[in-house]
Amino acid sequence: MTLVCIMLHAAVSFTVQAPRQVVAGNKFNVTFVLRNGEGNHFSAPDISGATKIYGPALSTSYSSSWVNGKSSSSSSQEYTMIYKATQSGKLHVGSATIEVAGRVLRTNPFTIEVRAGGSHQSSPQEQEEERRRGGVQYNDPSTQSAEKAVTGNDIFVRIEMSKPRVFEQQAVVCTIKLYTKYQVSQFIPTQQPSFDGFLIEEIPMQPSLNNVETVNGQQYMVAILKKCLLYPQKSGKLTITSGNYDVNVVQYEQYRTIFGTLQQPVEKSLKVKSNTATVNILPLPEPRPESFTGAVGQFTVTTQLKPEQLKTYAAATYSYIIKGTGNIKYVKAPELKMPKEMDVYDPKTNPKAQTTGSDMTGTVTIDYPFIPQFAGKFELPASKFTFFNPETEKYETIDIPGRTLVVAKGEGTPSNHYRIQNMDIRNIATGDLGLEKSPAYSVAHWTYWLWYVLPLLMLVGVLVYYRKQLRLRADVSLMRTKRASKVAQRRLKQARKFMESGSKDGFYAEILSSLWGYLSDKLSIPGSELSKDNILTELESYGVDEPLRERTMALLDKCEFAQYAPELAEQDLQQVWDEAAGVIDSLESVKRKK
């Protein structure tokens, strides 16, 4: 039986609510619900293999609300029928009809499975004994009197875990179920259970009271409220806290008339609290292999190179393709040792997984973009991928063979990113250096000493003249920072010339040179230590806010990618120039944090 929920602005609908399974000899309810309409001439279908005990009993409800100056309302008419299953097998329920505003609406036909009574089900005699003791039967409205108090034995929410113990990062299924002997007209979670220490992957569910389960010898209608995969992130005992819910159940007021006993449905509001659930999380065995990056489950690995024919200064991608079952969405990128002649960028992870019962299955592709800087043959060394298999409780390692990268000569120039990474060691200058032999001076001649006295006197004069100014300029980094903008602006002028001439390569080279040089001066970072990570750290220390830091790093990435993969870049040059000038102006307005 599906849960009844009030929907705002809902269209007219005519649906049926019924259990999908019943036990032979037991009674069961079938309720036909008309929402947001006024119906006439209701006609219930005949059910072969079942006897009608009671009905139809009509109950109506209406609600309205006013939210943000807009009103909305909804209504429902419920026609409840009580049947008794006379034999096991399948009951085919046809369509019910009702007339609304001159139009006839029909419900969809469906099938109810009738199971033979067994030891796990209450027998008719036991049900009758329970009825005599005043117990509530989920399928017998005569036992659901409004005079009875609804207890925790009649309705409760239970949190169930699929396993009592798992390893870190191993999936465990958490199911939250509603057990009730009454029809539920409204169910509102006021406080959801918390899952501290877990990563959560929800399994899509549509709550509906369409199952019957026996707990401690008593039968309940059951709805799965929430089902999810939990991946524990730490070892120890982790607890899922209880949730709180506001529930409206339907009871019946009974009236004796000359025509017999009539029943009128009434709602009762309850507050229900679920249990807590605990799982013991085992730590992964020590020592952990160096090639282990957190994968737990069962996996296979393949590699891929795109394109196969490499050229210098042309973008390429080397990919790990990891398939399997486990924490596939949370697998971290393994370390890839590319040859130093390749300009390598940060890896990108693309997981595609779906829940399959008690875990996730799918594929995660980890792409390593790179740009070859030199032609020739280069060796990509062999690597390893290690995962922990909870079935065998052991680490398993997959050997990934090495690869020879053949790079042909292409068009372009070495990337600025590559040059900066390798600028701490420079080639020895050769050729005519314009050196001259220094003239010799006689120690006895007065001009010899004059060369020592004059610089000393000039130094004293400069110190006196700039005494006050040096106090203000004692911070060398500050002076370097003030000069940074002027240098960058001069370089941006050269970039504008390339832009006007249509030279994309020269334009992006000058833009990158301006930005890297400006940031080096602004942040007082030596060229040998200049990297994106250092720049990001120094920007934060300098006092640059997060949006401006993100703009700066995004601009560097955009220009680098456009310079070394021009076939993939579609930026407007004027827009890029304006963005670079704007970033520099914004950085200039930032005062260093004290």
Structure commentary:
It is a single chain. Strands 22, 24, 25, 26, 27, 29 and 30 form a seven-stranded mixed beta sheet that branches. The chain has 594 residues and is α+β, with helices and mostly antiparallel strands. The two termini are 66 Å apart. It has helices at residues 124-132, 416-421, 446-465, 467-472, 476-501, 504-523, 532-542, 546-564, 573-588, and strands at residues 13-17, 21-23, 27-35, 39-43, 50-67, 70-85, 89-93, 97-100, 103-106, 110-115, 155-161, 165-167, 172-180, 183-191, 198-202, 211-215, 218-232, 236-240, 244-257, 260-273, 277-282, 292-306, 310-311, 316-326, 342-344, 348-356, 359-372, 376-380, 383-389, 394-400, 403-408. The longest helix has 26 residues, at 476-501. The protein has four domains: 13-117, Immunoglobulin-like (Sandwich), CATH 2.60.40; 141-282, Sandwich (Immunoglobulin-like); 292-412, Sandwich (Immunoglobulin-like), CATH 2.60.40; 471-588, Four Helix Bundle (Hemerythrin (Met), subunit A) (Up-down Bundle), CATH 1.20.120. It is built from nine helices and 31 strands. Helix 6 (504-523) runs antiparallel to helix 8 (546-564) and helix 8 (546-564) packs antiparallel against helix 9.
